[in-house]
Amino acid sequence: MEGLSFPRSATGTSSILPPLPWHYSGDLLTIEYRADPGAVRRLLPDELDLANDDEDPGAVAFIWADWQASSDDRREFVDPIRLQYKEAFVVVRCRWRGQLWSRCVFIWVDKDFAMVRGHLQGYPKKLGSVQMSRPVSVGKGGPRLEPGGLFGATLAAYDRRLAQATVTLRGVAEGNGFVNSLPMLHHRFLPRIEGDGTDTFAELVTMRGSDVELSEAWCGDAEIELFDSPVEELTTLAPREILGGYWRSVGTTFAGGETLEAL
Amino acid sequence: MEGLSFPRSATGTSSILPPLPWHYSGDLLTIEYRADPGAVRRLLPDELDLANDDEDPGAVAFIWADWQASSDDRREFVDPIRLQYKEAFVVVRCRWRGQLWSRCVFIWVDKDFAMVRGHLQGYPKKLGSVQMSRPVSVGKGGPRLEPGGLFGATLAAYDRRLAQATVTLRGVAEGNGFVNSLPMLHHRFLPRIEGDGTDTFAELVTMRGSDVELSEAWCGDAEIELFDSPVEELTTLAPREILGGYWRSVGTTFAGGETLEAL
Amino acid sequence: MEGLSFPRSATGTSSILPPLPWHYSGDLLTIEYRADPGAVRRLLPDELDLANDDEDPGAVAFIWADWQASSDDRREFVDPIRLQYKEAFVVVRCRWRGQLWSRCVFIWVDKDFAMVRGHLQGYPKKLGSVQMSRPVSVGKGGPRLEPGGLFGATLAAYDRRLAQATVTLRGVAEGNGFVNSLPMLHHRFLPRIEGDGTDTFAELVTMRGSDVELSEAWCGDAEIELFDSPVEELTTLAPREILGGYWRSVGTTFAGGETLEAL
Amino acid sequence: MEGLSFPRSATGTSSILPPLPWHYSGDLLTIEYRADPGAVRRLLPDELDLANDDEDPGAVAFIWADWQASSDDRREFVDPIRLQYKEAFVVVRCRWRGQLWSRCVFIWVDKDFAMVRGHLQGYPKKLGSVQMSRPVSVGKGGPRLEPGGLFGATLAAYDRRLAQATVTLRGVAEGNGFVNSLPMLHHRFLPRIEGDGTDTFAELVTMRGSDVELSEAWCGDAEIELFDSPVEELTTLAPREILGGYWRSVGTTFAGGETLEAL
């Protein structure tokens, strides 16, 4: 049976995931802030540790991304509904085996293919409505990449707004934040179909992009608000101190991650 | 860490799946027909066999379902966007270990929680736009459950219509088809994050509903058309002969399936 | 040029509105309550008066409706995405020319054809996400039409939840409320394309359904919450006192309204 | 009562349209081709004439646009779901009172505010799913503004694909087409609520953008396919000869149009 993922067949044509590699080009709006380290701890499995006290253990990156992603043969270029998706995600850091890692604890995307790509990579992807403004070069309809440029971003799921943020640009910057800069440490698991609270399979994996191409980065003054939902825990990571806001275009390729350990 | 599925946390609140059991009430519009048995064969892994020649090996059930599904505590009743979803799915039958099984080869749903529930159960769920008319008891705005009642159903994904069907009721019936009546035989698997074409985990599972409660069934004259898409193989199961169309309300509970065999 | 509405052509095929009459069958969940009469007054044009003091001038009906609507030739039956829509709307009453009228002050629907139908009838329709639970007759997936039956309804627009309500049924009732029971009094107007704050056309119209067919009505205990949005004024109609909650199926036909007066 | 459009109130806060002016910044992908002039004629009211034989009377521009649009106070910048929309529209030309005009005969947008803005301007806007790829400056996830850059665009409504197009860039160009370059000549009308086939109001209006700011234009080789729908007439404008494909960013302001003549 052919196909990277389901549904598989003799040809693999209907697999929800096309073959690797996947090439990405997108814009990232990042807000970094400090939350309660105890709240971060409550989102980490026992086998992981918080970052050390001198490693900013409550640091959070809330990132909105507006992506185009395509296969080697560019098949998605001519059917842009399969090319584009947006996502909003929350990254913290953790320690495992003496090393510091980035880890995505919450993430929402707006297409099914992006959701299942994320599941392959250990991202806990749900669907949401992800919105972010784009820089313009003509007219007054949107923000410009210039001092004072006003960018907005929102996230909603199940008809409730979960987060909204703004970044007002100050100037160019060295980078676009530090929380999401390490290799990702993710769990992949499959609960038993018996639904008895145990997993039939679990493992730790890591991944990072290759062939990374970066635009100039911009930094600015950021604001972010988080809202309650009966099926989310986002507000446990409420900001205590804003660290910064950033805008950057990123190109990257995912050609496969690495299995670290079976659990 | 608590939570039937991701994202897990100390409380389990944000898990995309609530705890079992899940109770379902819905309406099913079923079209049964015969396709090319060779096409069914090309959708089955090697370890499964086609149904025998005297078991209608090319039989297909194309089912539209309009569901409400809730937890024991009825938490979804007051937030109906988390209560309701629609799905369209294609069921064939197969042989494994001397037994005849039902098996879902293609399926589309319109909510993320339903998608991930299906992945837990081995359904190859994608997202789609699933539409079906509902019976009415007052007015002329929709079909009635009576001879001549005209029901329609459509399926689309990625802005392409994939299937459309009609059933014109003739009268009450003994049941609502035979293809989907057996325990399901599904594969669950997780491709290695290395993306090297191998799975890190695979198994065979089975499941069926419990506490099934059925309305009167209706049968009728059915028509169905399937359409091409570059990312689907539905038209390989084009109908050669229509067997029948059915409408029925179904109540059922999923309290966990059964692991059959690791692969 | 043929076609009830735009775009018109030699055939009228592409008109967003099919020819009259339009037949409706749907379920209505109604919450009636008293708001500040002053807030109702601020939603009425000068030429209309509040209901008299002994006519409950602050009375509001907040109604969720899950419709199927079709043309005489039932063309929409076989393409249910064109058959079904949901709406949530807010009705108050007012006086004009010595008569008491119902009037819709806010309304959201989830399909464009329903939006433009409403504009023809003077309803100020916007798009929204409208959700309401449906009664079931088998299974435990949804509420039943019986004492204790728990119905929920929500409304969102632009990724913000605007309203949520529940009705817990107590028993059968004489009717499903009084606020929306009168002929509608609506303004239709078209602002000048110059955008100078004046209308090029305005008139008062009235309409009501014909061939009304009603199911048994149910009443119950109701709760409703309204939420803020920068582009809505719904919370000005916050409930001061709940009057009741109702569920009923309604069939009706719209075969045209009546022009009352040019303004 | 305040508010440019419905619903009006004492404050105007909930009007679906914010006050003028509206500032637009967006990307346009244009495909120009020749269709049957008789088909264009069947989309024009009697009082308009086809362009003359030497004015390319069957010329059509099919334009996809990815917009951000904001008010003077930039209120939409911080809530990008109210800032962004996409549209696909079909422009022909016509003669009236000795002058040649552009005229939009079909148009689909993906937000309600954009739909009602269009109705104010005489555009026959429906809702649709409008998709188009965006140029990238880093990575391989999308097309670049360079020779060989491959852009795709699609349109769907009511779960049917209506159009798909590609443009492969060749180089920079003088402009981005000629069909849509004239002032628009649009009808605005309101059918009588009696639904008797007559209009209670009709007029001719014109509009064009002000403060236009243009990026460099690109031209390329274009392909376009149109598909049938029971509620559309797009395929009557099937291409007989492709004239060209173009990409350009456009900034413009709408500060009001001009009433030409009551009908």
Please, could you describe this protein's structure?
Four copies of one chain form a homotetramer. The first copy, chain A, is mainly β. Chain A has helices at residues 37-41, 112-121; strands at residues 22-34, 49-50, 59-71, 84-96, 99-109, 125-127, 129-132, 150-157, 160-173, 184-191, 199-207, 210-214, 217-226, 241-254, 258-262. In chain A, the strands form two sheets. In chain A, strands 1, 2, 3, 4, 5, 6, 7, 8, 9, 12, 13 and 14 form a twelve-stranded mixed sheet that branches. In chain A, strands 10-11-15 form a three-stranded antiparallel sheet, covered by helices on one side. The radius of gyration of chain A is 19 Å and the shape is globular. The mean pLDDT of chain A is 98.
* Mean pLDDT across every amino acid position of chain A: 98
Biggest beta-sheet profile of chain A: 12 strands, mixed
Q: Strand tally of chain A, please? A: 15
The parts of chain A where pLDDT drops under 50 for at least 5 residues are none
From the structure provided, what is the oligomeric state, counting identical versus distinct chains? Answer: homotetramer
| Beta-strand share of residues of chain A | over 45%
Task: State the end-to-end distance of chain A.
Answer: 28 Å
The run of helices and strands of chain A is EHEEEEHEEEEEEEEEE
The number of distinct helices of chain A, counting runs of at least 4 residues, comes to 2
Overall geometric form of chain A: globular
